[in-house]
C-alpha cells in the first residue's frame, strides 16, 4: 500500500521535475500580475465601446446589474482608440498563453495535496484557486476560439466571456493579495543569491532561493535537462513567437503579413479600392443582390418630422464628405485608415427635423444572418463630422462585401457598429 501511495499524484515523490520551485512560480506569477489586469481593463473598455446602455440591441449582457457600474459614453476621439484597446486585449491575451500554461504546470502538485482541506482558511484558499484556474482556462479558451472564428461553446460569447472575466478577476485579486508578497520576496532572494554567488551554475543558484521548505520542490528530483533560467527563456520565447505571429493584424504595411495566426491578419485580401479586411461577407449575411440594386434599394430615414425615402442617386446628389478611418473588430484585427466618402450622419438627421444637435440613431441592415443586424449609435457619434453613411471607399464604389449600397463608418466604434447594407435609420427613436 505504501508503494502504491508513492505512485499517486498526492505523493510528493510523484512530482520529480527539478524545475518546480518558488522562484520559477514567482517569476511567472509576477508577469501575470502585470498582464492580467491589462487584459481585464481593456476587456471592460471593449464592452463599454458597444454602448450597451444605449439600446437593447447593443447590450449582449442584459443581466449585468452592478457589473455595469463603470459604463460611459464611448468617445469618437482618438479615431484609433478601439483599434488600440482591442488590439492590446487580444494580442496580449495570446502572448500570455505560454506564461499561463507554465504557471499552471508549476503549481499542479498543489491540486493533489492531501488532505484537501486543512482549515477554514485553507478551504477558502482552495476555492479561490479553483475559481482562478477554471476562470483562467475558460477565459483564454473562449477568447482564442472567438479570435479564430471557431467559437463552439454553447451560448453567446459575449455574456459568457463577460461574466467569466469578473469571476476570474475576482479570484485573481484574492490570490494576488495572498501570494504577491511571497513572490516578491522569493525573486529578491534569488537576485541576492546570484549577487553573492555570481559564478554559481544556474540550477545551483536557483536552489539557493529554494532552501526554505516549499511543497513545490521535489524531494527527490530527476537530473535537470535545462536550468530554471533556461525554462523561463523558453516560456518567454513562446510568448514572443505568439506576439510576432499575431500582432501584425493591428499594424499597417509589411507587418500585417506576419500575422500568421490571425484569420484577418495576413496580406490584404485582393487589390483595388475594396482590397482590405472584412469580417462577414454579403453571402454570409444573406444579402439578396436584387435588394441592393439601384432600382430596388431605398434608404428609409425616420425622425421628428416624418420619413423620407432616398435612392442611392439621391444620396450622391447630397453634399459629400470624406474621412480617413480604420475598422477595428472585437477579434483584435483592424484595417489601416481607409478613405471613406459619403453623407454625414448629422446631415441625414437634419432631413427629418434635427437641424441642431442630432439625437441617437437606430440603424437597421438588410442582413439576415449573424449578429448585429441592428445597431444604435450615440448622439456624440452621430454629431461627429467624420461619421458617415459611406457610399464609396478609396475612390471606388463600395463592394457588396464592404456594404454596398451604403454603410455606416464612425470614428473609434467597434466594427460591428459600422453597420453594412443599411436599410433604415431612425433618429431619436431608440427604445
UniProtKB/TrEMBL annotation:
Biased composition annotated in UniProt, kind: Low complexity: 201-210
Domain of life: Bacteria
Location of region: Disordered: 189-210
Keyword terms of this UniProt record: Membrane, Transmembrane, Transmembrane helix
Oxidoreductase molybdopterin-binding domain ranges (all copies): 293-427
Record keyword Transmembrane helix present: yes
TM ranges: 27-50, 88-108, 129-148, 160-178
Keyword NADP set for record: no
PANTHER family cross-referenced by the UniProt entry: BLL0505 PROTEIN (PTHR43032:SF2), PROTEIN-METHIONINE-SULFOXIDE REDUCTASE (PTHR43032)
Record-given protein name: Molybdopterin-dependent oxidoreductase
Species name: Streptomyces olivaceus
Amino acid at each position: 500500500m505504501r508503494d502504491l501511495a508513492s505512485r499517486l499524484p498526492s505523493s510528493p515523490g510523484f512530482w520529480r521535475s527539478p524545475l518546480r520551485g518558488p522562484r520559477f512560480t514567482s517569476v511567472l506569477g509576477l508577469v501575470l500580475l502585470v498582464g492580467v489586469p491589462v487584459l481585464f481593463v481593456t476587456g471592460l473598455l471593449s464592452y463599454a465601446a458597444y454602448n450597451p446602455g444605449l439600446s437593447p440591441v447593443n447590450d449582449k449582457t442584459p443581466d449585468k446589474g452592478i457589473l455595469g457600474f463603470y459604463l460611459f459614453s464611448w468617445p469618437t476621439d482618438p479615431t484609433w482608440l478601439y483599434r488600440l484597446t482591442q488590439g492590446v486585449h487580444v494580442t496580449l491575451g495570446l502572448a500570455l498563453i505560454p506564461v499561463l500554461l507554465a504557471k499552471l504546470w508549476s503549481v499542479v502538485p498543489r491540486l493533489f495535496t492531501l488532505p484537501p482541506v486543512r482549515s477554514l482558511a485553507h478551504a477558502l484558499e482552495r476555492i479561490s484557486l479553483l475559481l482562478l484556474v477554471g476562470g483562467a482556462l475558460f477565459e483564454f479558451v473562449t477568447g482564442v476560439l472567438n479570435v479564430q472564428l471557431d467559437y463552439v461553446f454553447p451560448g453567446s460569447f459575449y455574456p459568457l466571456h463577460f461574466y467569466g472575466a469578473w469571476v476570474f478577476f475576482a479570484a485573481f485579486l484574492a490570490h494576488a493579495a495572498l501570494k504577491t508578497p511571497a513572490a516578491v520576496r522569493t525573486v529578491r532572494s534569488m537576485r541576492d543569491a546570484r549577487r553573492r554567488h555570481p559564478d554559481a551554475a544556474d540550477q545551483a543558484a536557483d536552489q539557493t532561493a529554494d532552501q526554505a521548505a516549499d511543497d513545490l520542490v521535489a524531494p527527490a528530483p530527476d537530473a535537470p535537462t535545462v536550468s530554471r533560467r533556461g525554462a523561463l527563456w523558453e516560456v518567454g520565447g513562446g510568448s514572443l513567437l505568439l506576439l510576432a505571429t499575431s500582432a501584425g493584424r493591428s499594424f499597417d504595411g509589411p507587418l500585417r503579413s506576419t500575422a500568421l495566426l490571425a484569420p484577418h491578419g495576413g496580406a490584404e485580401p485582393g487589390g483595388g479600392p475594396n482590397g482590405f479586411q472584412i469580417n462577414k461577407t454579403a453571402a454570409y449575411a444573406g444579402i439578396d443582390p436584387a435588394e441592393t440594386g439601384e432600382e430596388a434599394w431605398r434608404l428609409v430615414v425616420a425622425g421628428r418630422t416624418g420619413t423620407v425615402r432616398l435612392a442611392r442617386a439621391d444620396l450622391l446628389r447630397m453634399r459629400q464628405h470624406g474621412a480617413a478611418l480604420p475598422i477595428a473588430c472585437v477579434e483584435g484585427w483592424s484595417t489601416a485608415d481607409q478613405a471613406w466618402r459619403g453623407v454625414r450622419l448629422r446631415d441625414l438627421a437634419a432631413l427629418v427635423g434635427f437641424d441642431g444637435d442630432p439625437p441617437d440613431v437606430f440603424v437597421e441592415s438588410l442582413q439576415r444572418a449573424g449578429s448585429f443586424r441592428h445597431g444604435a449609435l450615440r448622439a456624440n457619434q452621430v454629431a461627429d463630422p467624420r461619421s458617415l453613411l459611406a457610399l464609396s471607399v478609396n475612390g471606388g464604389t463600395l463592394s457588396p462585401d464592404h456594404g454596398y449600397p451604403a454603410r455606416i463608418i464612425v470614428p473609434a466604434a467597434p466594427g460591428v457598429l459600422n453597420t453594412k447594407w443599411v436599410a433604415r435609420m431612425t433618429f431619436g427613436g431608440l427604445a
